Amino acid sequence: MRTIAALALTVFAVGLMAGCAPAADEPGDAPASDAPEPPSTSATPSSTDLPTLTPPTAPPTNPTDAIPNGTVAGRVSGLGDSCVEVTTDDGTVWSLTGEVDGDIAVGDTVLVKVEALPVGEALCGSGAPARIVSISLVD
């Protein structure tokens, strides 16, 4: 009787262990692992991935500051009665008509708000024409 009880207990223990082991997909296959699958090496980004920019190899060759329309920034290259000539970083010369504060001198860097020169108003120089709305020194 003890032999039958020991045999029944052994069969029960083997059955219990077999029930806890993961099942193989097909006979002869190794049991499936609970470890997560390695990430795919696919190069397709998801819609939530942010683009990565490469670092620049040299400084920019063109100015990168956005200057709003109606604004001229540059160095004063000439002064006259109610006329200021301003040369921008890209070499454009502006001939600006209007009242100028006495603190502006040739060589100063200025920021000028401008408007179109009204039809019929005399040009004050050979550069791009505009009328001064306000002018300020840039430190």
Explain what this protein looks like in three dimensions.
The structure is a single chain. This protein has 139 residues and is α+β, with helices and mostly antiparallel strands. The protein has a domain at 71-137: Nucleic acid-binding proteins (OB fold (Dihydrolipoamide Acetyltransferase, E2P), Beta Barrel), CATH 2.40.50. Helix content is 14%, strand content 27%. It contains 1 helix and 5 strands. The protein has one helix at 2-20, and strands spanning 71-80, 83-87, 93-97, 109-115, 128-137. Strands 1-2-3-5-4 form a 5-stranded mixed β-barrel. The protein is rod-shaped, with a radius of gyration of 40 Å. The model has no long low-confidence stretch (mean pLDDT 78). Residues 1-23 form the signal peptide. Residues 24-52 have a biased composition (Low complexity). Residues 24-74 are annotated as: Disordered.
The assembly state of the depicted protein chains is single chain
According to CATH, the homologous superfamily of the domain at 71-137 is: Nucleic acid-binding proteins
Count of separate DSSP helical elements = 1
CATH class of the domain at 71-137: Mainly Beta
What fold name goes in the CATH topology slot of the domain at 71-137?
OB fold (Dihydrolipoamide Acetyltransferase, E2P)
Structural class: alpha+beta
The largest pleated sheet is described as: 5 strands, mixed, barrel
Q: In percent terms, what proportion of residues is strand? A: 25-35%
Q: Could you give the order of strands across the largest sheet?
A: 1-2-3-5-4
Strand tally is 5
**Can you give the mean pLDDT?**
78
Which CATH architecture of the domain at 71-137? Beta Barrel
Shape: rod-shaped
How far apart lie the N and C ends?
Answer: 105 Å
> Portion of residues in helices?
10-25%
Q: Give the radius of gyration.
A: 40 Å
What sequence of helices (H) and strands (E) makes up the elements? HEEEEE
The residue ranges in which pLDDT falls below 50 over 5 or more consecutive positions are: none
